[in-house]
Design goal:
The chain is of the alpha/beta class. The protein folds into 3 domains: 72 residues, no CATH class; 225 residues, no CATH class; 170 residues, Rossmann fold, CATH 3.40.50. The protein has 18 helices and 8 strands. Strands 5-4-6-7-8 form a 5-stranded parallel β-sheet, with helices on both faces. Strand 6, helix 15 and strand 7 form a beta-alpha-beta unit. Helix 2 crosses helix 3 and helix 9 packs antiparallel against helix 12. The radius of gyration is 31 Å and the shape is elongated. The two termini are 22 Å apart. The C terminus is likely disordered. It holds the Pfam family DUF2868. It comes from Zoogloea oleivorans. Keywords: Membrane, Transmembrane, Transmembrane helix. This is DUF2868 domain-containing protein.
Length: 488
Amino acid sequence: MNEAAARHVILVRALETTDSPDKPWNDTDAAWASRAAAEVVGSEADADRFLARRGALAVERLADRDRQLRRLAEGRNWRPWVGSLMVAVAFALGILMDAVGPSRYVNLLAFPLLGLIAWNLLVYLTIFVEGLTRPFRRTPARPGALRRAVARLGGSLGETLATAAPASPFTVFRNDWAQASAPLTLQRVSQVLHLSAMAFALGAIAALYMRGLVLDYRAGWESTFLDASQVHQGLRLLLGPAAQLGGVPIPDAQHLENLRLPAGHGENAAPWIHLFALTLAFTVVLPRALLALISGLRARGMQNHFPLPLGDAYFQRLQRGFSGREARVHVLPYSYAVSPAAMLLLQEGVTREFGPRASLSVAPPLAFGDEDALPPSALPDTPPSLVLALFSLTATPEEENHGAFLAALATRLPTGTPLAALVDEAGFKARFDAQPKRQEERRRAWTRVLEKHAVTVTFVDLTDTDPGALAETLSHILDHSARPGGPR
């Protein structure tokens, strides 16, 4: 679905998942929207088309009931004119920049454009390092202050807002949409910043030649620590590519010695202006144009194929209702025997969360030390909707055993299957109920081990937990697993 359709879907989700006495939507409306969307798209349509049509029908029905909702549904997440204005301002600032200093001498070692080139090279290095380290981060890097400011100017809803509970559906929507649209907003902001940097460099180049038409600039250099041969080597390194392409040779050390200030009087700066302009084009204009093109293509792709977390509990329920497919939850205990009471509780929680047609399967417990070779019975033949690794809090978590078990299990799961961990506290509470500090320490130990494998961990008492609370836990697991950058 595209960006507009995704906005409608998330708005309807906020209405359907938020408890509010005055919201203009109820269960009857939700059932109508699902039924009407299914009739329009047909039984052979995929979930993406069904959800997009459902959101459009719901917004169309709701538009006459609430003006605020209509404004939110029709709102835009980006103001294109802001980007155009920033590019124009950057070009004007480049022209206004005193590119050659207050005097008419072009100091070859203190040329203001050298700072512009160095800054852009530093930006490229930062982008390169960020790209290399991105796969190893658990959470996405937080945008800098400049990117956040541009996002706000562009009309993005920005960061999520801290609100007192209970939140209204409209506040929930704003927060959800800010999170869902963050990757698209980041690409749009990146495109604007790259185009602005390119425009600034073009403005600086234009200023050089416009001033050179009416003023006689002289080129020279001065330094306390460098001699002519060292200056020659530095200029060859910096301006060499431009010199070869433009056919403007870099003078030798003896010639540069004659340009040394204040003893020398310099020379006509035109060849040097050509060299610096070409260098600026190679190091700033062309790379920034390429980066802007990449960001623009990525933004266009996200705009036309908006990445929604369709694996979360809400969307899973809608898709199951549309397709008639039942949910399958598979539990795999590790060195833990599931009691009949715990089995009944798990079944009740699954039924409450996924509906009466949902099925629960529990594999035979895997013995301690057998984690390296999972038996065929560890996973069902039919791909499950959710896999839960079940542990006992009485066990001391060990990376070489419990961690290895999770790693082996993750490699066997179909791509996209949510994997989470349940840690039963019943046995530990029975032995150390009067020592809550010890229980908390054991929880932290389990969390440290399991989070290394990007697995959501939840602590439950399978002998004394309300089935409704367990159902909410399963919903949380699905939501967390479906978030970008969250566990698999």
